[in-house]
Amino acid sequence: MIKIQNIQKSFNSNTVLKSIDLEVKDGEVVVIIGPSGTGKSTFLRCLNYLERPDKGIITIGEITVDAEKTTESDIHKLRKKTSMVFQGYNLFKNRTVLENLMEALVVVKKVSKKDAEVLARQALEQVGLSDKVEYYPKALSGGQQQRVGIARAMVVNPEVMLFDEPTSALDPELVGEVFEVIKSLAKKHITMIIVTHEMNFAKEVADKVVFMEGGKIVEVGTPKEIFEESNNQRIKQFINKVNK
Ligand SMILES: Nc1ncnc2c1ncn2[C@@H]1O[C@H](COP(=O)(O)OP(=O)(O)O)[C@@H](O)[C@H]1O
Ligand SMILES: [Mg+2]
Known about the structure:
It is a peripheral membrane protein. It comes from Clostridium frigidicarnis. This is Amino acid ABC transporter ATP-binding protein, PAAT family. Its main location: membrane. InterPro entries: AAA+_ATPase, ABC_ATPase_HisP-typ, ABC_transporter-like_ATP-bd, ABC_transporter-like_CS, MetN_ABC_transporter-like, P-loop_NTPase. The structure is a single chain. With 244 residues, the protein is α/β, with parallel strands linked by helices. It has one domain (2-243): 3-Layer(aba) Sandwich (Rossmann fold), CATH 3.40.50.300. It contains 9 helices and 10 strands. The chain has helices at 40-47, 72-81, 97-108, 113-126, 142-155, 172-187, 199-205, 223-227, 233-243, and strands spanning 2-11, 14-24, 29-33, 55-60, 63-66, 82-85, 160-164, 192-195, 208-213, 216-221. The strands form 2 sheets. Strands 6-7-8-3-9-10 form a 6-stranded mixed β-sheet, with helices on both faces. It is globular. Magnesium ion is lined by residues 40-41, 164. Residues 11, 14, 16, 36-42 line the site of adenosine-5'-diphosphate (ADP).
């Protein structure tokens, strides 16, 4: 269970998050949509303290972190509960696919090399890349690299996976394979918060859709409630615009 209460964040005089509240149940997939510059990435980054919120309380499982009295130990614990998939993969270029996954396990999770290799191979099998374990990232397509990014985020067994526009750096023909992998994780009831501009994917994968604008959550609902039934003009306009 994830509970986010009153998260606020400013960059100098620019108030980017104006009190965000959100609850995510175990196994739930939450998709965040909304215009660019609205604070979606900042919100995700506040959840693992890549950005430090000015105010607010984040609870993930048994860990509760209050922005106004955060310790290094809190941040460390919170980071162990989350993992992020970035737009640009962020793989280590001079390490093989297998080593990229093992690194996360050995360094962050203090898993032995032997166990790390077993877990890494399992994760790579789940994303359909068993035949690429010895490859270096540059020998893979963008879609394959992003599947490695997903496997690397998953292999540490986080309480929640955070995705920030995981397909927006990809050529259109490579988007589908990445979505298929994310959908397969959703079927396994891995808790996920996903920012995306791909509305069809959002409809398919989301238990809950969050529409954000101007640093606030405007509406939360099922895909049907947001995409078909919302009376909010801004939501209707946004959906019409991105669907064109
Ligand atoms: N590290 C930063 N320093 C200063 N301003 C930032 C930083 N990160 C984001 N912003 C600003 O915060 C606002 C929201 O950005 P962002 O969270 O990236 O929005 P979105 O992901 O919805 O496009 C923008 O005005 C952006 O310029
Ligand atoms: Mg963003």
